[in-house]
């Protein structure tokens, strides 16, 4: 700014900046330095300047096109290449995602001044067939694409920059480089490098925002490539002392925001460079706004369109249309849509839940609405909203359908359009929703209506995917005074601006820097082959802006989350840890102070205060005397399924087994439970027929067609089957035949069937005055080579189990108290009950005839879902005396402990496995979920 003001005619100067935000701050600082009228210099971003010189100094400028029209022309180019080779070209629907990736690749190639060649031998082991086809034709595709642009009088910004950079003297002949100040650029593309070098060689001045010792890596490369000297600018306002850093480790986002609010509440000066909040995750933006103190705020970050309410409404609408079967709505999708905030139709969701079938026609929906007195509203919803989406066959059709949605939402959000005070009376959420609708009208609909592809026929799925792709890159702007109050901005928006105090939130690894995206066209090594910068360069850019912003501050607060999320089966625990950039800052402090950084006023941790008089979840339900009385009467007998239910979630056990609640179910198109029952019944009927005259069964006697016939007869009697389309019936039968065939293929060559659907039971004494009946039903019991085998058919997920590890369970090691900790410990030690439970019951019943039965009996799941194989509790050759003794002693003592826990624990505790809450029928009414 000092150099600018020293010029005799500063208004003839052109200042090139990396973003517009820096230009606003430059004007602000100029207004503070200059008192009175003043002609501003020409302040432009690089993109604005390139376009300006092109439009001002070209007789017949070409039309700029957006990335979606570019994708269409890329599709046309690829299609012509494929047809030329005699192959069948792809459809626009299928190729569109590839075309968008190619568009981004071509843009990058232009900016790096790289003319790609066909790649003769792409790495086939890591790429899909389509990606290989694209790379093999990459040079030809690039050439045809630009030829088509030229023929049609079109141009892209990246191609324009390419042409300027190739011959800067011809494009920039009307510019005076001596009047140029190029400020704040760090990582240059090759095109930027060529243009800036020409300007610099002809008198322009370039300003870096950095310390000189040491230079950031990309500045060092720039200096070495240009072979230039650096003049360090003396700055009166620049400080020599290091900024004060404070670190805060939070257990979740709300703890971060609580600490942020505490820090912001101390600020009473609202100059634009006083304070900045830099959230590194845009999903944190809405919670952040709710935690800001009631002070002036300027928000420059945009909120993602695809995280907003209206977008979710449209997405649910698309799910309904995508799920249509023979013009019938899938009830589950319809209910999810109608439960939203924009479709409040009293009683309709409950009526649909009670409907009973997995699908509902439009006529049936209207009849239900008529009984509820909302026929007019539902007719409007169907005719104005649903049918236009159902019949859309091009993006132009989709534009009309979305127009209908926008009108519908406006009518729901603004029932009184004549209210003149609507803006002042609106809530923040309503204002956000209205902003979303405006962005849809201004940014999305024109692409759908006016694109080169707007009349091209597309499938419903292709149209919806197109809309999702457009929406993923669009942000909702927030209104605010640009130069007033606390600045909430993204990291790259802070370029060239210093703030006295900065608050970073979400400085987590995987967020900053982010996880590397897998590119389906260009794996890591291919970027180097094409002459494109690698991933490391992106990290250097983030590192530079992060460190520069901190060094320009007086105080910087760095916040991150640290927590371990329980992972699903066979996965490592998902951890949130602080960023490597935080680690570097801490290491530098420790190196300087020659001691580890310990918790103090600079290093804080969020704290969760827990009561000392017993810790339990607030979601637990307290038992009373009535509970205990009911328990004694209801627990006359218990199955392994009920015990495993209690072990997984005592609250769910209470709802189902004690209260007898039956959650409302939305009918599914395919009732997998009914299919599983049909499989069980078919196997029982088939083996009963086989064993009428003999118990010994050979594998070569098994007949898949006979078994499948029983299955078909049973399934055809199920109610849900009557509503299935012929295509779905075919798929169900095809899948069942394949799985039953796998089952037969995995059967032993010879077995003796002892029982089918055998009821096993035994009375177990818990106390002198209280006993309970243990019972279960074994699907099949075999005898093979002097060993008994209890089989349990599984048509769902089959859990892995190791009986030898179960023998490590020691009931005496459990706490004597029946609390949540002892239940978790039991689950940790044993976790699996069903198969050893059957094993125990069978042996107690059989031991009168065969004393050694305890040492010769095992159990197995039969995996009917995938392999058809038997998964043994303990393989027969591993059986022995130790196993039988463990069953008779430790295992049954463990069962007694679990029953006593049901009786005497003071609370019905929440789920011991939080992942089970995802699919729980009671989650809507359970605080824990």
Tags for this model:
929 residues, alpha/beta, Rossmann fold, seven-stranded parallel sheet, seven-stranded mixed sheet, 46% helix, globular, PDDEXK-like_dom_sf, PD-(D/E)XK endonuclease-like domain-containing protein
List the helices and strands and how they pair.
Elements: H1 2-6, E1 14-17, H2 20-33, E2 42-45, H3 46-56, E3 63-64, H4 67-84, H5 92-111, H6 129-136, H7 138-151, E4 154-155, H8 157-166, H9 168-171, E5 180-183, H10 190-201, E6 205-207, H11 217-226, E7 244-250, H12 253-264, E8 275-279, H13 285-291, E9 297-299, E10 303-304, H14 309-322, E11 328-330, H15 331-338, H16 348-353, E12 359-361, H17 362-372, H18 375-391, H19 395-413, H20 422-425, H21 428-450, H22 460-472, E13 475-476, E14 486-488, E15 501-505, H23 524-529, H24 535-551, E16 555-561, E17 563-565, E18 574-576, H25 580-593, E19 603-605, E20 621-622, H26 625-634, E21 637-638, H27 640-648, H28 650-658, H29 672-690, E22 696-698, H30 704-715, H31 719-722, H32 726-745, E23 750-767, E24 770-784, E25 787-794, H33 803-806, H34 820-829, H35 834-846, E26 857-863, E27 870-872, H36 881-904, E28 907-908
Parallel strand pairs: 1-2, 1-5, 3-4, 5-6, 7-16, 7-19, 8-14, 8-15, 9-14, 15-16, 21-24, 25-26
Antiparallel strand pairs: 10-13, 11-12, 17-18, 20-28, 22-23, 23-24, 24-25, 26-27
Helix pairs in contact: 3-8, 4-5, 4-7, 5-8, 5-22, 8-10, 14-15, 14-18, 14-22, 17-18, 18-19, 19-21, 27-28, 29-30, 30-32, 35-36
